[in-house]
Amino acid sequence: MNRGSIGDRGGDRGFALLVVLWSLVLITLLTTQILIGGRTALHLAANLRAAAMAQANADGAINEAVFHLISTGPDAWQPDGTAHVLNAGGTIVTLRVTSLAGRINPNLASTALLAGLFQATGASPAQARTAANAIIAWRSAAVSTQETQSRIAAYRQAGLPYAPPAHGFNDLGELADVIGMPPAILAAALPYMSLYQSTDPDPSLAAPIIRRALSLAGQPGSSRNAYDGSTPVDDIEAETSGTAMRRSAIVSIAGADAPTPYEFLSLTGGY
């Protein structure tokens, strides 16, 4: 009996030891997971903090650019694409300001000007005319029920579940939805378009491609709706060093003496 009791007690001690060992393994695994999770959370928090600081620095630099745009004298900046480098709290921010007055607004441009742009960026004359006509049809109301049905039928035949909305574009990306719009042709033309200006391009502020488009459209010296000196609209691009944060602002500049010196029309971007 004594020997059996001793054996039983030895077995109990062995089982207890096994339970302790497994408990230690489980505790070790849990501790490891907690430590890993803690480090991950700290790393994520650090990344979020860095991103927030980078965005704040970029936005602060954009506001400084606006100050220079509404200024006169030696502090004034011209929207000519020149790189301006600022130090924002130890973060280097590179700013470029470009006037949009030299770009083409697809909501306003004539068929000839749109075709001129597509041709100037590499499309054949036939491709350019087709793309321009499709844009005009997208943004314009049909003159009859028959024309409306014809437009719908053309989009259905192309496998598209929508039809031209008969109003202007809200975003340049919508141009890709226009029937028969070749992606390569659109990609080449997009850098020369904008929806923010209220006139056709000012040739004195336009890129060579735009001036070529104006020439092809028969408007080399001016445009269909000649630039009337209305409130300039500028594109401000800000890029921070290190975190590579990129922010873009579209700003209407009225000037320091105006009741509203400037107005942000758009502020977008991130990593």
Radius of gyration: 31 Å
Arithmetic mean of pLDDT: 85
- Oligomerization state: single chain
Q: Helix fraction?
A: 40-55%
- What percentage of amino acids are in beta strands? 15-25%
What best-fitting shape do the alpha-carbon axes yield? flat
Secondary structural class: alpha+beta
**Residue runs with pLDDT of under 50 for 5 or more positions:** 222-229
How many individual β-strands? 5
Polypeptide structure, described:
There is one protein chain. With 271 residues, the chain is α+β, with helices and mostly antiparallel strands. The chain folds into two domains: 51-101 and 232-270, 2-Layer Sandwich (Pantoate--beta-alanine Ligase, Chain: A,domain 2), CATH 3.30.1300; 111-216, no CATH class. It has six helices and five strands, in the order αββαααααβββ. A five-stranded antiparallel beta sheet has the order 1-2-3-4-5, with helices on one face. α2 packs across α6 (208-216). The longest helix is centred in the N-terminal third of the chain and has 69 residues, at 2-70. The N and C termini lie far apart (78 Å).
